[in-house]
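Annex B. Sample input.
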Amino acid sequence: MSVKIWHAIGLMSGTSLDGVDLVYVKFWFDNRYHFEILKADTLKYSDSWKNELKSAFIKKPDELHNLSLKYGLFLGELINDFISKNKVVALDFIASHGHTIFHKPEQGFTLQIGDGNQIAKLTKHKVVCDFRWQDVQLGGQGAPLVPIGDALLFSNYDYCLNLGGFSNCSFDDKGTRIAYDICPVNIVLNYLANKLDLDYDDRGSLAKTGIINNVLLNELNALPFYQQLAPKSLGFEFVVNQIFPLLNKYNLPIIDLLRTYTEHIAQQLAQNLRAHKSVLVTGGGAYNQFLIKRFKELSHCELTLPPSDIIEFKEALIFAFLGLLRLENKVNCLKSVTGASKDHSSGKIF
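Annex B, continued. Sample output.
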């Protein structure tokens, strides 16, 4: 039997604004899908891009349209530089998540900027993007989308846990894939670290020295989102409207806020993942040793931290995989995960 092979570049820009993750990956299929990450890189945002993306959610529709075009050109240039630097020759397509500005599925809309037509024109390659919109139109959350990749590429773990701007988990329940967002992670921890002129709390070393404020911790844990049943997903608006006001309400040292919020994350993770299960942990939060320690102590799960290229680039890898499934016209959005009216193949092709 002949083995089918594809080469792709996947792009992911997370809500924590660490930068754009790019991964060059080889996929092949012989009764099941396999992958090999060939090259990967994270390209940091300039201060001007960080500020523009942070403030984008207050822009008017025509300003957002222009920003999407501009950001698409920016991504196209990043991809061309990545291709040149890594001497990429074989390339079947590019799959771009874009950058999320709005995510309000309960109101029927979601917006990821980064115009796919601009990327395609600049790179002269086929582009798949805008993966979330169709799912929202079908009544779904438009998120999380990674679980189909978890199911087909990482099925040997009980749970796949991503600790990025937000945490989300994915698992199999009697043959049905279930997944949802758990709580904000790096988007809040980095916000607090920024107040100390740091990009992030390295390994959780600052949080480790702080003192838990139990009143704040109880308020965080009592937020209504945590009592909602899946499918459910989070956006930046939740953080701005509900998390930041709580943190700002208390006149606490930053290290105590870091300690309290880290405990909040660990408790939410432990409540959502059944004890004594195998867990693949990826995303930038996997490097937060103090958070991982607290989660392990509370959950008693067997945690696996894979090689760094998977920790850092799993989401970009899986968006490349979503692009592959879209081009093959295969399901890449699961109704059991998002709550959409049906399974479907999502993504616009340029």
